[in-house]
Design a protein that fits this description.
Distance between the termini: 41 Å
Largest sheet: 6 strands, mixed
């Protein structure tokens, strides 16, 4: 049947072994081979049972849609799944390894599923802005109900089959070989009467209609305010599954998938997904050390968050804090955070106790002995007894060091670490930083610079660009509203209040430009912590403060308002220009790193695909012209980097960089 499949028949059981090589990728060629094999075996009177399995350790899978990197432009997968479901002979699929997307779709369409106990399954479609298009929204609810289905399809995580909410998918869980499992199950199936069992005819997942509707309502509330289209379409298709016959339900799903395909949002999310995979390669290197023990210096809020993240990851933390009162408060904060996690159901009490066993704190001279890396997370810790030769990583913003680690906020749960290497950093120091990121289950964006890290550069550019627009007569509240509508969770002046105006005010502006945070700081406003900044912060959250607008207008005359679209274009353009400078200076090697960092640090929403993708989507030429036309003294901010003109000339974007 070709190199994609190998067929063997033993005692009436035909096995179609799928050969995908190391990539374990489900391809169009393989789907065609499956179709031909089933057609042939269906006509063979000597075959009673058909089995789909992998020839290697992992069942072939993946997203077959082109936006997901697949080659199934005509959705051949859907037809193969329906062919399997309608087969007059029972079809068994054997799942092994981590199986996603199309591989799971084949199993759902099969009449029976044998699944190894270590197998995990998932659907990353929603993360790509896509809807499954081979029946998952219709077959999964029939087997699992709404709650587990939506968790798989919208949550997007790889979930273990054994012992979890998706366990009903398995007709047999096995921990020996696929051959042994096939033999046992085929024998039992024959004893019961060999017959197909189409998933389309099953309704176990609909048995509790109240629970089904409740799960739909809960997810609907969760995603109501999200601009992402795919989760809403998936929800509608899962709701339709309970109401429609299978053919109509499959047509409903197909229409939902079509609505999401080739949209700007699906292109952006697919781009971001693949950018994450490229960045993730940094922490998948096989030469990284296994981190088991770290030291943390000082009792600051950052130090406490790092300590919490580390002990939750199973790392022993030796926490050196000079001041007894600070030690009591910092350790108490970590204990309190863990207890809150237990109360909220995010952590078991047993896991909390294991975490606390990894926490060792004090001010002893030998406390840091045996640590693989020491994290300086509080100022004033220069005299700490760090053993000679131990690598020190600085975790404080604005510190030039051989090695700096900047954790995306919130540190205990953030998904990214900036590994910032100074000119004299060694490869061992790089590996230590990456090893810690891997142990913490975070992506790592590696940067080489003698100065400020990339996130701080982008953040300062955000405030600098917003201040420039205020210089030109715009209201800070109008700027925030425009960028919030664009998708920023924390637009510049809301973020300035959250950060503290004393922090934002430290950065000077060019002659003729104003740091407006500095002005408000002079007026006694410090930000959210004291209740007054750009906004008034009360019990109901931030509200506009007329006095702020009055003080700003006293320094410059208001002009006609820019449109929200123009404000967003200029600010995003200025930030992307800072990203382009980082590329020119070889701080990061690719635009993908900037896109991933900008999303994981909440500067840009994920559905925009990251900063550099977003500036391309809004038009490099229009953005360049808008920046060049702006009459503002900070020309360095508004002069596009040469790469803009180069990309425009050749019809390319930063996605190609």
């Amino acid at each position: 049947m070709g190199t994609e499949t190998e067929i063997t028949v033993t005692d009436g059981v035909a096995q179609i072994a799928l050969t995908a090589g190391p990539s374990a990728r489900l391809t169009v060629a393989m789907l065609n081979a499956i179709t031909q094999a089933i057609d042939r075996l269906s006509e063979d009177d000597g075959v009673e049972i058909i089995v789909l399995r992998a020839s290697g350790p992992i069942f072939p899978s993946g997203i077959t849609a082109p936006q997901g990197g697949g080659d199934d432009r005509d959705n051949l997968l859907s037809g193969v799944c329906r062919q399997i479901e309608l087969s007059a002979k029972p079809v068994i699929t054997v799942l092994t390894g981590a199986v996603v997307g199309g591989g799971v779709e084949l199993a759902l369409a099969s009449h029976y599923r044998l699944i190894h106990k270590q197998t995990r399954i998932g659907f990353p479609n929603a993360r790509l802005g896509l809807v499954p298009s081979a029946g998952a929204t219709q077959r999964l609810p029939r087997l699992l109900g709404a709650e587990a289905t939506l968790d798989l399809l919208i949550g997007g995580a790889l979930l273990p089959v054994a012992g979890g909410p998706v366990a009903p998918l398995a007709d047999m869980l096995f921990d020996d070989t696929p051959d042994a499992a096939i033999t046992r199950f085929s024998r039992d199936l024959r004893a019961k009467g060999t017959a197909p069992r189409p998933t389309a005819e099953l309704r176990a997942g609909f048995a509790d209609a109240g629970a089904y509707q409740s799960a739909l309502a809960g997810v609907r509330d969760d995603i109501a305010s999200s601009p992402e289209l795919a989760p809403k379409k998936i929800l509608a298709a899962v709701e339709a599954a309970m109401l429609l016959p299978i053919d109509t339900g499959l047509a409903f799903e197909d229409a939902a998938a079509e609505d999401c395909a080739d949209t700007e949002q699906s292109k952006a999310l697919s781009h971001l997904f693949h950018a994450e995979q490229r960045v993730a390669a940094q922490v998948r290197r096989n030469d990284l050390p296994e981190i088991s023990t770290i030291g943390v210096l000082g009792g600051s809020a950052i130090a406490a968050q790092i300590a919490q993240a580390a002990i939750e990851a199973g790392i022993r933390v030796n926490w050196f804090i000079k001041d007894p009162a600070q030690q009591r408060d910092a350790v108490g904060h970590v204990r309190g955070a863990l207890q809150q996690a237990v109360q909220a159901g995010r952590m078991s009490n047993d896991h909390m106790q294991r975490c606390l066993q990894n926490l060792h704190h004090g001010d002893g001279s030998d406390l840091l002995v045996g640590t693989q890396i020491v994290l300086r997370a509080t100022r004033g810790q220069r005299g700490a007894p760090v053993p000679p030769g131990t690598v020190i990583a600085h975790c404080l913003p604005g510190v030039d060091a051989r090695l700096a680690l900047q954790f995306a906020s919130p540190t205990p749960t953030g998904g990214l670490v900036e590994v910032i290497l100074g000119p004299e950093a060694t490869d061992d120091e790089r590996r230590l930083g990456l090893g810690l990121a891997r142990r913490l289950k975070r992506l790592a964006v590696v940067q080489t610079t003698a100065g400020t890290g990339l996130h701080d550069r982008l953040l300062q550019t955000l405030w600098r660009a917003a201040d420039a627009l205020v210089d030109l007569g715009q209201s800070p509240f109008t700027i925030d509203a425009a960028l919030r509508d664009w998708g920023m969770v924390y637009p510049p002046y809301d973020l300035a209040d959250r950060t503290g105006l004393n922090v934002v005010a430290r950065h000077p502006r060019t002659e003729g430009a104003q740091n407006w945070s500095g002005l408000l700081l002079q007026l006694g406003r410090q930000g959210r912590a004291t209740g007054r900044g750009f906004y008034h912060h009360g019990s109901d959250g931030p509200s506009r403060d007329a006095e702020v607008q009055h003080k700003i207008n006293g320094r410059r005359a208001p002009q006609s308002n820019m449109t929200a679209d123009h404000i967003a274009r200029l600010v995003v353009g200025a930030m992307a220009n800072a990203g382009a400078k980082a590329l020119r200076e070889s701080i990061v090697p690719r635009a993908a790193e900037i896109d991933v960092l900008s999303v994981f640090t909440h500067l840009v929403p994920n559905w925009r695909g990251g900063l550099m993708h977003a500036v391309g989507a809004q038009g490099l030429l229009r953005t360049s012209r808008a920046m060049e036309a702006l009459d503002h003294p900070d020309r360095d901010l508004w002069t596009p980097e040469p790469i803009f003109a180069e990309l425009i000339k050749y019809g390319r974007s930063f996605d190609d960089h």
